[in-house]
């Protein structure tokens, strides 16, 4: 995949991770530093995302700092029901992301709610919808791990 990246794509990806200007028109400022127009920056990000070279581009909000809550959850889902259960779990707007693991706890997802009390309510709703137990793994300590991929 990386051989599909031009030098300019690599510069853009690195700048998006570390150096996005905090101004009213960040893509204009970023484009000026890379010799691109604002529209060229937007189009290039869209192409990288559409081509699967970027999977996500956007802000990360700290739900807890905003009064909300996060909780890592896991379920043991029979393999023959996995897709059906996945659809039911993902139907809940509070499910931030969901992924499969090769383990007895084979479905993992994150609940993001407006307040801590809603975590249990949504977990119980998912249990009701699927007939399966939702295990909750609330955060005990906060760790900041700066994740950056040098393009």
Overview of the molecule:
With 151 residues, this protein is of the alpha+beta class. The protein folds into 2 domains: 49 residues; 69 residues, Alpha-Beta Plaits. It has a 4-stranded antiparallel beta sheet. It is elongated, with a radius of gyration of 19 Å. The model has no long low-confidence stretch (mean pLDDT 89). Pathway: Porphyrin-containing compound metabolism. It comes from Roseibium aggregatum.
Quick take:
The chain folds into 2 domains: 2-50; 69-137, Alpha-Beta Plaits, CATH 3.30.70. Helix content is 38%, strand content 15%.
CATH topology of the largest domain: Alpha-Beta Plaits
CATH class of the largest domain: Alpha Beta
Strand percentage, roughly? 15-25%
Structural domain tally: 2
Going across the major beta sheet, what is the strand order? 2-3-1-4
Low-confidence stretches: none
Cα gyration radius (Å): 19 Å
Number of helices: 5
**Helix residue percentage:** 25-40%
């Amino acid at each position: 995949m990386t051989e599909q990246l031009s030098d300019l794509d690599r510069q853009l990806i690195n700048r998006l991770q570390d150096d996005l200007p905090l101004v009213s028109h960040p893509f204009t400022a970023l484009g000026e530093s890379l010799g691109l127009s604002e529209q060229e920056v937007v189009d290039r990000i869209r192409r990288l995302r559409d081509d699967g070279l970027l999977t996500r581009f956007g802000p990360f909000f700290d739900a807890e700092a905003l009064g909300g809550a996060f909780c890592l959850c896991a379920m043991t889902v029979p393999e023959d029901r996995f897709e059906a259960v996945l659809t039911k779990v993902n139907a809940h707007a509070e499910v931030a992301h969901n992924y499969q693991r090769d383990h007895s706890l084979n479905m993992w997802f994150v609940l993001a709610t407006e307040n801590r009390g809603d975590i249990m309510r949504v977990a119980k709703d998912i249990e009701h919808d699927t007939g399966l137990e939702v295990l909750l793994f609330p955060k005990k300590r906060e760790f900041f791990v700066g994740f950056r991929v040098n393009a």
